[in-house]
Design goal:
single chain, 348 residues, alpha/beta, 434 Repressor (Amino-terminal Domain), Rossmann fold, 3 domains, six-stranded parallel sheet, six-stranded mixed sheet, 13 helices, 12 strands, 18% strand
């Protein structure tokens, strides 16, 4: 079997670079990593690995930094995973999604190095290919979120369409006909499903009388969210109500409306998704949809534990597993940021 030094010589890189690729560490150009991985596969290289620990699971999280710096979505899911795993004596390891995982062999190398028996993947934006590769290999895994191509997969989902439709119905029933929607990154499947549900509900209930403006805010940075609100509101006929799909956007809207002298809810109604890990306490109770992020993590760990229990008799971890989908509901939280539109109140 080829050594790390031999792989380095074959690919004209340093042994340290080969080691980084093997261990999934950052700092290697994507094309270089692909070249090294191909050489490792051709040489049938087997890294020194830990024995598979049936009481250890690997949690793979998104690779973009802002998901941790400015949001609580991922961290609260991780807390749920940790609480459930530790309660039954399991340990967890957490890794960011490597940017150059392109084949099943890449995943096998990563798992072999980590020694974990199963994977929980938090699928957002860049995790879809990784989820599909896990499915191809039939490794014990649970996906929190939705994949692009996999259908029969162990997964924890949110009632994205149902909750968005409910928020839209509520605002229309209050008398709003011009709605604004602020979504996150347009590659996030859940956000797009919510946006489509808003559009369909508006069309069904109001037909041509309804108007929906939407804008994407690619980051949870509050200043960017404030600018996104400005683009929605600075229209000749601005929306009388806005639905936003993350808590930082709601904070940005509240800050911007105060600076502009726009009164909520008298002049503008606001509904936002929030999650169980949201730490910011607002002086105005927010009409919201509470996303059960902690429970998502806990249920993902429970589901993976069930899968791994099927391998307790020593069967290969590639044994075909039962597929299950658990849909968790968002909880409607009434607040003080919604009211009938000002024009309707004046007419009455």
């Amino acid at each position: 079997m080829a050594s790390i030094r031999e792989i380095a010589r074959l690919t004209n890189v340093s042994p340290a670079t080969v080691s980084k690729v093997i261990n999934g560490r950052p700092g290697v150009h994507v094309k270089t990593a692909q070249l090294v991985r191909q050489a490792l596969e051709n040489a049938n290289y087997q890294p020194a690995s830990k024995a598979v620990d049936w009481n250890r699971i690997l949690v793979v999280v998104p690779n973009y930094p802002s998901i941790f710096i400015r949001g609580t979505y991922i961290s609260t899911i991780l807390a749920g995973v940790a609480e459930q795993a530790l309660s039954v004596g399991m340990s967890i390891s957490v890794k960011k999604l490597p940017p150059d995982i392109n084949t099943v062999a890449d995943i096998n190398q990563m798992l072999l190095q980590d020694g974990s028996s199963g994977v929980i993947l938090l699928a957002l934006r860049d995790g879809y290919q990784f989820a599909d590769l896990l499915g191809v290999e039939k490794l014990p895994h649970v996906v929190v979120g939705e994949t692009v191509h996999q259908h029969e997969v162990n997964q924890i989902l949110l009632d994205d369409a149902l909750s968005a439709a409910r928020a839209t119905e509520f605002l229309i029933e209050q008398g709003h006909q011009r709605l604004g929607v602020i979504v996150g990154h347009r590659s996030e499947i859940g956000h797009i499903r919510r946006l489509n549900a808003c559009k369909q509900t508006l069309q069904t209930m109001l037909g041509d009388k309804g108007v929906l403006y939407d804008i994407s805010c690619k980051s949870t940075d509050i200043d960017l969210c404030r600018r996104a609100f400005g683009e929605l509101y600075d229209r000749p006929e601005p929306p009388t109500a806005i639905i936003c799909f993350d808590h930082p956007a709601a904070i940005g809207i509240l800050q911007e409306t105060r600076q502009r002298g726009i009164r909520i809810p008298e002049q503008l109604s606001l509904v936002s998704y929030i999650n169980e890990g949201t730490a910011v306490v607002l002086d105005t109770p927010l009409t919201s949809l509470m996303v059960p992020t902690h429970e998502m993590g806990r249920q993902a760990a429970c589901m993976l534990q069930t899968l791994l229990a099927g391998n307790a008799d020593g069967k290969s971890p590639t044994t075909s597993q039962h597929q299950a989908t658990l849909m968790l509901p968002s909880r409607w939280v009434p607040g003080a940021t919604t009211a009938p539109p000002a024009s309707q109140v004046a007419a009455e």
